[in-house]
Specification:
Elements lengths: L1 E5 L6 H12 L3 E3 H10 L5 H10 L6 H12 L5 E4 L5 H13 L6 E6 L2 H9 L1 E4 L5 E3 L18 E2 L7 H24 L3 E5 L4 H12 L4
Parallel strand pairs: 1-3, 1-4, 2-3, 4-8
Antiparallel strand pairs: 5-6, 5-7
Helix pairs in contact: 1-8, 2-3, 4-5
The structure holds zinc ion.
Zinc ion binds next to loops.
Length: about 220
């Protein structure tokens, strides 16, 4: 199964990607997580600087994002992409890459949520500063407040969420760059829209429903 998860920041792509990954037995590839890992590696290389810029929404280089995604999915029997592609250029490059591998996408799932609910989801997101696991204070809280279930480290804000201006910038970037992908994948007959309102379990049921016939 080869899937793309589309949707605005905070809609729950990471949560649904992780569930799908478990259910389908294919890796969930989050470019956000790959970038955070790169930054956490510590070295202040040009690559790390670019990763930080991409996360903050200041500058997105297609070639960098492409290289990151392709190296993660090359040779995999399937994948769930979350946070990539983010522009039409990236979508076209992905199409060419998959063609060169002799494979095609199965579906593109577009998660939709009203603006008010989106704001609340983003504000409640937390990231483990130790292992990178993600939580939400209301819909996916850790067992002990402020501490990671997996490794016990402290939870903090995601680097890309810690300032309201950064959040707005990412939202704008989504609207101008990612929204054209909706038309692109609609044209390919791959797009499936999912109402992302509700708890993760309920949304996951809708996701599975939309994939019936493909799984
Ligand atoms: Zn952790």
């Amino acid at each position: 199964m080869r899937l793309i998860l589309l949707g605005p920041p905070g809609v729950g792509k990471g949560t649904q990607g992780a569930r799908l990954s478990q259910a389908l037995g294919v890796p969930s590839v989050s470019t956000g997580a790959l970038l955070r890992e790169l930054i956490a590696s510590g070295a202040e290389t040009p690559l790390v600087q670019e990763a930080r810029q991409i996360l903050s929404g200041a500058f997105v280089s297609d070639s960098f994002a492409n290289a990151l995604a392709f190296s993660a999915i090359a040779g995999q029997p399937g994948f769930i992409l979350d946070g990539y592609p983010r522009s039409l250029g990236q979508a076209e490059a992905l199409e060419r890459f998959l063609e060169s591998q002799g494979v095609t996408l199965d579906a593109v799932l577009l998660l939709r949520l009203c603006e008010e609910a989106l704001g609340e989801r983003v504000a409640g997101r937390r990231l483990c500063l130790g292992c990178g696991a993600t939580y939400h204070v209301r819909i996916a809280p850790p067992r002990r407040e402020g501490l990671c279930d997996r490794c016990g480290s402290r939870l903090g804000l995601r680097p890309e969420d810690d300032q309201p201006e950064k959040r707005r910038l990412r939202q704008q970037l989504y609207e101008t760059q990612t929204a054209p992908l909706i038309a692109f994948y609609q044209g390919r007959g791959l797009l499936q829209e999912i109402d992302a309102e509700g708890l993760p379990e309920a949304v996951f049921r809708k996701v599975c429903e939309s994939l019936r016939g493909l799984i």
